[in-house]
Specification:
single chain; mainly alpha; 2 domains; 5 helices; elongated
Length: 102
């Protein structure tokens, strides 16, 4: 097994730098995985990288995560469109004043 030492931080550094430069998290994470795959597999990185990405995205945990985040995102969008967030904001402000006063 190879030891990459300080170079093992390179994919993480790429992700962090790209997030700050582009403000796009998904593309930055994807670029970080590509950098990691190039480090691990060299010039023939494409097939092992695709196999790894496919294996992760086909797992039950990933599917559950996408469904839960999608449904909660939809629920938040519905609350925002219906004005339900305004009511929650008023209640939260009242509770906050009560907690501060106590």
């Amino acid at each position: 097994m190879e030891s990459y030492g300080i170079f093992s931080l390179l994919p993480v550094a790429v992700v962090i730098v790209l997030v700050f430069l582009t403000r796009r998290t998904a593309a930055s994470l994807l670029a970080g995985t590509v950098v990691g795959a190039v480090m691990l597999y060299g010039p023939g990185f494409m097939k092992p990288w695709i196999d790894t990405v496919y294996g992760v995205m086909a797992s039950d945990l990933w599917i559950w995560l996408v469904l839960v985040c999608g449904f909660f995102g939809s629920l938040v969008a519905l609350f925002e469109a219906s004005g339900g967030i305004d009511g929650f904001t008023r209640i939260a402000a009242r509770v906050r004043r009560t907690l501060i006063g106590a």
